Amino acid sequence: MKDINILGIESSCDETAAAVVRNGREVLSNVINSQIETHTIYGGVVPEIASRKHIEVIVQVVREALKKASMTISDIDAVAVTYGPGLVGPLLVGVSYAKAYAYGCGKPLVGVHHIEGHIAANYIDNKELEPPFMCLIVSGGHTHLVNVRAYGEYEILGRTMDDAAGEAYDKVARAIGLGYPGGPKIDRAAKEGDPEAIPFPRAHIEGDEYDFSFSGLKSAVLNYLNSCEMKGIQVNTADVAASFQAAVVDVLVGNSMKALEAHNADKFAIAGGVASNSALREAMEGACRERNVRFYRPSPILCTDNGAMIAAAAYHEYIKGNFSGLSLNAVPNLRLGQKQNKP
Amino acid sequence: MNILAVDSSGLVASAAILSDDVIRSEYIVCNKLTHSETLMPMIDEVIRSSGLKAGDMDAVAVAMGPGSFTGLRIGSATVKGLAEAIGKPVIEVPTVNALAQNMAGYDGNIVPLMDARRNETYTGIFTFSGDKLTVLREQCAVPLGDILEDVNERGKKTVFLGDGVRVFADRISSGCTVPFVFAPPGLRLQRASSVAVLAERYYEEGFFSDAAGHKPVYLRVSQAEREMMKERLRESKAAEGDRITGDNL
Fold first, then answer.
1. pLDDT in tens, A194-210
2. In-domain check, residue A338
3. Domain residue spans of chain B
4. Smallest Cβ distance to A101: which of B37, B38, B81?
5. Which tens digit of pLDDT belongs to each residue from A73-85?
6. Is residue A197 part of a domain?
7. Contact A49/B211, CB-based, under 8 Å?
8. Looking at the DSSP assignment, which residues form a beta bridge with residue A78?
9. What Å distances lie between residue B96 and B40, B138, B219, CA to CA?
10. pTM for the full model?
11. For labelling, which of A148, A311, A339, B145 has a CA lying 20 to 30 Å from the CA of A127?
12. ipTM for the whole complex
């Protein structure tokens, strides 16, 4: 069969990214332009600033992706782009660019769900991985526990009822003075702390055993910090970080394992920015090993937002002939498995 | 020479093709802000109904701003994508200048008014010397009173246009001391054909850029930056206050 080369474009948050992926598995290039330093002084991503940055660099990022793949646009079989979920301003830059670019080149366009992209990152680093498997996607904006039945077929088992796990990391990191982005900073600080020092709550949602909630945990941390301040007790930042992280990891691993057992799944994957968190990775890997379940995860570079995962996810849509039309829009609250805009 | 021009800076989404002094096609839609869904199909339509293909374009022009931040970026990203795909340059046309171009042939001053919210308007002052648009005051974001004062001082009859006409009509009627009219509906809002006409001139004068180099002109920083600057100003003033107090002691 002829090789299929797909150009993937991603701009749903604060990374402008483009990549070329062959047959959904082989990364020929993966260019990521992160704006993280720009947003750090604001303590989080500012959508308007992110949108402005995306438009300034998108051409250069796509050019670089083609150049690193030693290709020109004529070697590309389709243009893929994230159209949701995410921040609407940033999404619109990628979607508008990709539509016009695909149109100008006469190539098919494939709109990709951001979470499908994160799941598909696992296909790149784990060549033997094929559905069905179970996948936990954790990032700054998302916490989803998904049963991947087949390529492009998803059953959402659990999701967060309030804050995403990564969002809770950012908020807690800000409260204990570690700054933005919270995930890697808390992960690092936690290594020096005692995860059992402070008994933060593990939330379980009544009736929805696989759903998550992190806002109660976040409030518990803030309350703890307040009460220490009032009592004049010096806060041990490392202990707070470690205890908070332990609570997050416990819930993520607990719900995942419950779902694994209930569905008799024998393969489990994690994805998303928080998937590169060392505590989560180790705990998940250990829990899977105990149950004789194969554990998969993408390399850290494919855990962050990137174009390769978008191209990898688009491959399976390309094979099925699922293309998007010129009226494809950005959908900030796009649900997993929901398809918009057939041509 | 074929120029595809796009304007999605305001309520209107518009696309047009200019081929050697002839507008081959133009599409104007003013139906809420659905530019992201409508602009690309409109572009496809003007290209096809002109009997052309995307690759036949020699340049792609865009109303570069000011305007709705999101609208500008939809236009800019679209134009960059198209220009990059066909390997042709982008021609940037200031939105307010393109609006003024709607009034080609008018023998007084031309003042576009775009509703910029926050009690301001994106505006400028223009006139025609023969068939050439001349800029008397560059596009800017100012309070209406500021531009009205300027218009009155110039003492020439004036036409106002743009979506700001509806917003500011009463204040113009009570504050404008020179004879004035409002542009008729067909000429009042953004038209890609006007972007195209100016673009052709800019192109001939050598003003165009590579797809990578183009970015919109907002005339405003983001709200987060504005607040950050205010905060810093407060802090530096407070620090200055401390120092003065310190010196006094």
1. 999 999 999 887 778 89
2. no
3. 2-95+190-222, 96-188
4. B81
5. 999 999 999 999 9
6. yes
7. no
8. A6
9. 23, 9, 12
10. 0.94
11. A339
12. 0.94
